[in-house]
Amino acid sequence: MVIQVLNGLVFSGLLYIVSALGMALDAAVFRPLQREDPLTTLLVTFGLSLVLVDAAQTIWGKDLRAMPVPEALAGSIQIAGEAFPAYRLAVILVAAVVAGGLSLWLQYSRIGLYVRASSADPTVTAIQGVNTNAVSALVVAVGIGLTGLAGAIAAPLLALSPTMGDTIVIQCFMIVVIGGLGSFSGAFIAAILIGQVYSFGIVYLPWASTVLPFLLMVSVLIWRPTGLLGRRA
Q1: Is 117 exposed, middle or buried (CB count within 10 Å of its CB: 0-12, 13-18, 19+)?
Q2: pTM of structure
Q3: What is the pLDDT of residues 133-146, one digit of tens each?
């Protein structure tokens, strides 16, 4: 029990450290690029990811690593006569709690209002007296902190390597495009759709399972170029 508590404290501390690094990254990289073309920011971010991956390979090597499932969640749970891995159910629960909490934070808190206003028109928001630089730093910190949380939770389910994020970045890109730029609800729905399409594809069309999410993205863009819940500029 004591070891679990200590591990929890270490994990919480690491998330705070990752969030602080995100704020530093915002001040050093993203904020100077605010007036640049979005493509410039995208290219800089991509280059930064390559640097971080290379640094991780230099420090920890390129070998694949595995993390065991916590003992408390190592078993299975019977639901309607079927056995489901307890850890996977816990991952679903944590994801639902995080998504619900983030949605409530954005919709009903004052800082959430500032975030939504800044994303729509940062100039007008700044004129109203909102410190958009602080809002930007907070958003980056929260985003990177949640990324660290997702990586830690998914670690027992994946093979760990410095390049494991490459596939995830592509999936995130598809989620944003399908859901619609700037739409949190759209991204949530798109993530569920892609997960279901990929999962059913593995069962029924294993030879095309990796292509099906891309076909879904193309279909959505043909039907609705702005994404499921995106708005026209």
Answers
A1: middle
A2: 0.76
A3: 888 888 888 888 88
